[in-house]
Amino acid sequence: MMEDEQLRSILKCVRCGTCRSVCPIFEELGWESFSTRGRMMIAKGISEGMDLDESIIDSINTCTTCGICEEMCPAGAIPPDVFENIRHEIVEMGKETESQKDLRENTLSTGNPMNETHPRLEWLMEQRDVPDHAENVYFVGCLGSYRYQETVLRTYDLISDLDVTVLPDEVCCGSPLLRTGSDAGELIAHNVRQMEEVGAHTMIASCAGCYNTLKNDYPDRFRVVHITEFLAENLDKLELERLDITVTYHDPCHLGRANRIFDAPRKLITAVCELREMRTSKENARCCGGGGGVRKGYPELSKALTEKRVAEVPEGVDYIVTCCPLCRTNMAPFSEIPVIDLLDLLTWAQKKE
Amino acid sequence: MLKKQLEAIVGEKNVSTRSSELYCYSFDASQAKGDPDAVIRPHDSGQVAAVVRLAGELGLPVVARGAGSGLCGGAVPVNGGIVLDMSSMDQIIEIDIDDLQVTVEPGVVHEKLNQALSPYGFFFPPDPGSTAMCTIGGLMANNGSGMRSVKYGTTRNYVLDLEVVMADGKIVRTGSRTLKTASGYDLTDLMIGSEGTLGIITQAVLRIHPLPRARSVILASFDNTALAGKTVVKILSAGIIPSACEILDSTAIETVRRYDPTVELPDAGAILLIEVDGMQNAVKEEADAVGKVCSELASGIKVASTADESARLWNARRLVGAAISRIDPKRTRVYVGEDIGVPIKELPGMLEYVRSLSEEFNIPIMTYGHIGDGNLHTGMTIDMLDENGMERVNTVADRIYRRVIDVGGTVSAEHGVGKARESYMELEHPTSMYVMRQIKKALDPHGILNPGKMGL
Ligand SMILES: Cc1cc2nc3c(=O)[nH]c(=O)nc-3n(C[C@H](O)[C@H](O)[C@H](O)COP(=O)(O)OP(=O)(O)OC[C@H]3O[C@@H](n4cnc5c(N)ncnc54)[C@H](O)[C@@H]3O)c2cc1C
Ligand code: SF4
Ligand code: SF4
After folding, report:
1. Where would I find the FAD-binding PCMH-type domain in this sequence (chain B) (predicted)?
2. SS3 state of residue A46
3. Looking at CA atoms only, how far is residue A215 from chain B in angstroms?
4. Which of B134, B320, B325 sits opposite A12 (nearest CB)?
5. What is the distance between the alpha carbons of residues B360 and A131, in angstroms, rounded to a whole number?
6. In this structure, are residues A321 and A269 in contact, taking their beta carbons and an 8 Å threshold?
7. Is any atom of ligand 2 closer than 6 Å to the C-beta of A32?
8. Which among A80, B26, B147, B324 could bridge A65 via Cys, Cβ 3.0 to 4.6 Å?
9. Is A38 within 8 Å of chain B by CB?
10. Is the dihedral of CA A63, A67, A69, A75 positive or negative?
């Protein structure tokens, strides 16, 4: 039986259809079951015991959790939360898809969704003198640890003077599991335990997905900041100089809409170069198509969204800057213009001694 | 079997009998429900005609659907059958500024049409709150309108010619490409407001209007809704035709604030939002005149100072009906009894009656709407987990409808009759229902087009 509170969150939807005008998946597929409203109806159906066949599961699982529907919903419904919860229910009922199962098993056994088996941050410890204790912990994240080590190193160097360390045995923050209906309690507990051991009070995340999860799904015991907030606060200590380039900025859904961090990244970018906004930005920014398990579960659909987002890049920019390694990984193959992390941009702009 | 036959007409990817789709297309924004046998997404009138012919052979209902934002169950297949999701036919075919017209497919979303017309300095004036999602087809089928109908009229006033697939599968054109015609029965007008029961619209030629040079919004506050109602009577009888004249009661004011905290509204028992438009000087003059009339009964008057402020105000106003769900986390808006129209001078009495019902039944009723043309919306919310909630609002709605008919009003000023209001058709049209039935019988003898609607 579903909790009353969860049921009420589904019943908030008045079926007005406002979200039809914004849901990027619906725009792609056109059928009602792939619109936010359709998913809300199906969530209600599931709460009433509807049979779960593949089409029902596809409806619920094709949401990228981009949240633009929530932004527009007049009734105050929070569809991405509803769908995450309902995914959880579906998984509990034993209707996990192969893609969800893979993601869960990989992440729980290796500590990362990519199923990488070699040690996660040993390379960083080898190259840098990382302290055992500090006030602040830089939460590196899975893609950072395994795919973007250069960016991580730059990030670390940029903030290492500010009393920062990393978790000695960091594991995935749990985001991929939580967004796709699995339980992430084990991972969360593991990371929290180390936070306590390190004695830190602040977690600094550089990935939008990690940030969102640490901020909203972890016990409320630490301050969680995004690296861009942390750096924007310390802008004067960074000794940056201007670069003769123009960039555009892609707002990651889980940083922007979900957590209202729009200004800090822009403050940092405009401190070092020209910024030209994408056709949609901030609250209205289009989703890159990477989130919510859609990239893994429905690659063709995800790709269609990515292409639409890349098509919004304005003329005459040298780079697409973002603050989320998932958005970056997702967009790079479809963009002629290189996609970089904001931290890469900042290190380029650091004054050379 | 049916699936295969439909696939042969519209192609495999445009037919669905998946359970997810059958479920989602069993609703619109009303409380009506009915499961379709199949849903298709046609792409031209030839496909629509072939599907209608097939449905005729099989004796299956055919229900056209736009965005499903309708509030009366119009697009709900209450007797099953094939749902035609017309939102797949969404091309703006031609914008012809010289002839003051635009040719569209029915699935074009209202807002998209106005976005396309705006660079030319033109617009399609009917202005529903559902602009972001509803389709032109749905608007035509319901004769929808909105905030600007007090001056600009309803959708009906803007349709010049239609391409319609009739129940026998023939494709007909109903009008002409001229701005007026006196030739023959007005079949265009017959189709408007027929809610998909007489034919399926596959193309429309619409008259467009130049955008006004200037607009000004006056915000007048009152101690109660009845005083606001009296003021509307005074404004209109003073010979002023505002381009919009909306009422928000105290609950609606609070709802607007919750929806968009940047919109500044005064604390009041009711507010009138009055817009005047036209040439710069005339707008100023009319705004002054409106202010003067309002000042007799208003407790405060304010003029929205910037275009941005007005835009935010109208945007919040548009969605206030759904946004009322924000007032109480346990309650959800249900659309019943929501779309009444009364003669202008009956407004104060009607507002008072709704207030008394709210007290009698102990149900908060938000009143808002296009008061300038006598169109009031009564917004009721219920706790969806309360078993008796629905029954109580239905009783209130029934009382409202009966009163409206008593005073010479209508149970639907713009949202349509569909399933939700069909039981009031005899009451509202005691002498003419038989004519409507005969028209229906003549044009759709086997009753395949959207059956179970409009009390036909
Ligand atoms: C928040 C909100 C605000 C609203 N505000 C307003 C408002 O201010 N004014 C107003 O008038 N309405 C308003 N509505 C109601 C609704 O949006 C309108 O009735 C709209 O015209 C319906 O359009 P749709 O495309 O959603 O049609 P649907 O709901 O899909 O269908 C409506 C009717 O049209 C028929 N139909 C659809 N397409 C065709 C076609 N091609 N040929 C023949 N029949 C067809 C259907 O069979 C059905 O009977 C509002 C609704 C909501 C949820
Ligand atoms: S906008 Fe909100 S209330 Fe309206 S259909 Fe979408 S989720 Fe439901
Ligand atoms: S979160 Fe994004 S993808 Fe998911 S339903 Fe809302 S708009 Fe669609």
Report:
1. 32-211
2. helix
3. 24
4. B325
5. 70
6. yes
7. no
8. A80
9. yes
10. positive
Q: In the structure, what pLDDT confidence band is assigned to residue A238 with cuts at 50, 70 and 90? A: confident
* Number of other CB atoms surrounding residue B203 within 10 Å: 20
Give the atom of ligand 2 at the shortest distance from the alpha carbon of B325: 3
**Which residues in chain B are closer than 8 Å to A11, comparing Cβ atoms?**
332, 384-385
A316 touches chain B (CB under 8 A): no
pLDDT the model gives residue A1: 54
Residue A329 Cβ contacting ligand 2 at under 6 Å: no
- pLDDT, average across residues B166-185: 94
Domains defined for chain B, CATH in brackets: 2-87 (3.30.43.10), 88-210 (3.30.465.10), 214-323 (3.30.70.2190), 324-414 (3.30.70.2740)
Q: Which chain A residues are Cβ-neighbours of B41 within 8 angstroms?
A: 30-31
Interface of B with A (CB under 8 A): 16, 18-21, 23-25, 27-29, 39, 41, 67-69, 85, 87-88, 109, 111, 130, 132-134, 258-259, 319-323, 325-326, 329-330, 332-335, 384-385
Q: Does A31 touch chain B (CB under 8 A)?
A: yes
| pLDDT-based confidence at residue B203 (cuts at 50, 70, 90) | very high
User: Which residues of A are less than 8 Å from B63 in CB distance?
Assistant: none
Q: What is the CA radius of gyration of chain A?
A: 20
Helices A36-47 and A54-61 pack at an angle, to 10 degrees, of 130
B137 touches B128 (CB < 8 A): no
pLDDT band at A3 (very low <50, low <70, confident <90, very high): confident
Report pLDDT digits (tens) over A184-199. Answer: 999 999 999 999 999 9
Q: Which two tokens stand for residue A63?
A: 């949401």
Helix intervals (H) in B247-306: 250-259, 280-295
Would you say A327 and A252 are in contact if contact means Cβ atoms under 8 Å apart? yes
Q: Pick the residue whose CA is nearest to atom 6 on ligand 3.
A: A69
Give me B68's structure tokens.
Answer: 């499903």
Report ipTM (2 d.p.): 0.95
Task: Determine the distance separating the centroid of ligand 1 and the alpha carbon of A164, expressed in angstroms.
Answer: 57
Our answer on whether the CB atom of B389 is closer than 6 Å to any ligand 1 atom is no
The whole-angstrom separation of Cα A111 and Cα A189 is 13
- The pLDDT of A308-323, averaged and rounded, is 97
Of A5-9, A319-323, B31-35, B42-46, the one with minimum mean pLDDT is A5-9
CA distance B365 to B359: 9
The CA distances from residue B312 to A129, B110, B305, B319, in Å, are: 54, 19, 12, 11
Task: Give B309-322 as a DSSP string.
Answer: HHHHHHHHHHTHHH
Query: Is the CB of residue A78 below 6 angstroms from any atom belonging to ligand 2?
Result: no
pLDDT at B309: 86
Write the residue in A12, A18, A59 that is nearest to B133 by C-beta.
A18
Q: Quick one: average pLDDT of A111-139? A: 94
Beta carbons of A224 and A246 less than 8 angstroms apart:
no
b/e burial code for range B122-131 (CB count within 10 A of at least 16 → b): bbbbbbbbbb
Sheet bearing A274-275, strands edge to edge? A274-275, A246-249, A319-322, A339-341
Residue type, B281: N
- What structural domains does chain A harbor? 4-95 (1.10.1060.10), 110-233 (3.40.50), 239-349 (3.40.50)
Residue B425 in tokens: 């058709």
The token pair that represents B381 in the structure block = 């919310």
With a 6 A CB cut-off, is B195 part of the ligand 1 pocket?
A: yes
Q: Is A18 in the pocket of ligand 2 (CB under 6 A)?
A: yes
